[in-house]
Design goal:
The chain is 74% helix and 0% strand. With 266 residues, the protein is mostly helical.
Length: 266
């Protein structure tokens, strides 16, 4: 008899429980002996603050950041996929494209953010998304998607490529008929990983002062007011938003590529 695997939902519940327990122990370790300020509030205190404030109190800031992350996710992944496809049509360009991806990954986002706030500026109007935050979100997802797409394109079955070539198909036909299908699982996995990365890049861009209403600006204000419970509440909401996006892309991946998980198409 083979080993019984833990169901996905149960492993998720266990993981959340372990994180909450570690958070609670962390809060106990940093609980001050005197004073009212608590740098690490307990999970119960943070959840209580969230319930008391309501999500509507934070939605105005999260709406801007989610919009920035979505635009950055779109443009960064589009550029990455186009470059990866270019490598297949012109293989000699692969070293150049890979080097561009590696350089983009090695660039310090803080330094790039400082330059981009000067060149691109921030939000054009109060409450609008920041151009700098969108750029940093796009830059944050670029490397992961380029690498995932390249590995996926190269996973195409050689025999299928030969069949297309025998029937007169060129590189573009191979890309459309064989390589895209073979690369789809890898591309979707890269896009799934890119969701929280794009959100993080957008928040980092907001820390440069590129907006007047966003998650980054909200965190700066709360930290200045020493409002630790709301700071941790924003952290928790950021994690929830990133997990929702990550899970949504995972669901899309399971629906689009059912053969990867061993399920048959309907």
């Amino acid at each position: 008899m083979g080993e019984r695997r833990i169901p996905g939902w149960l492993s998720g519940v266990i993981g959340v429980g372990v994180l909450l327990a570690a958070w609670w122990l962390f809060a106990l370790a940093f609980r001050p002996d005197t004073g009212t300020y608590t740098p690490v509030p307990s999970p119960g205190a943070v959840l209580g603050r969230l319930v008391e404030d309501g999500f509507s109190a934070y939605w105005g800031s999260f709406r801007v950041t989610i919009t920035e992350a979505a635009y950055g996710f779109l443009w960064g992944n589009l550029a990455a996929l186009l470059l990866a496809a270019t490598v297949l049509l012109a293989p000699r360009l692969e070293p150049i494209i890979v080097q561009i991806a590696v350089v983009s990954y090695c660039l310090p986002l803080v330094a790039v953010g400082g330059i981009s706030i000067v060149v691109l500026g921030g939000a054009t109007r109060p409450g609008d998304p920041s151009t700098t935050a969108i750029f940093l979100a796009a830059l944050a997802v670029f490397f992961t998607t380029v690498v995932g797409a390249l590995l996926g394109f190269k996973a195409a079955d050689r025999a299928s490529l030969d069949v297309v070539r025998v029937f007169g198909g060129g590189r573009f036909t191979q890309l459309r008929k064989v390589r895209l299908v073979a690369a789809l699982p890898g591309i979707l996995n890269a896009l799934q990983i890119a969701v929280p990365t794009a959100f993080l890049g957008a928040v980092l861009g907001e820390y440069m002062g590129a907006t007047d209403r966003s998650v980054g600006i909200l965190l700066i204000r709360l930290q200045g007011n020493l409002d630790s419970e709301r700071v941790w509440a924003v952290f928790l909401l950021c994690a929830v938003v990133a997990m929702i996006g990550y899970g949504a892309l995972g669901l899309v991946s399971r629906l689009v590529t059912p053969w990867v998980s061993g399920r048959s198409t309907p």
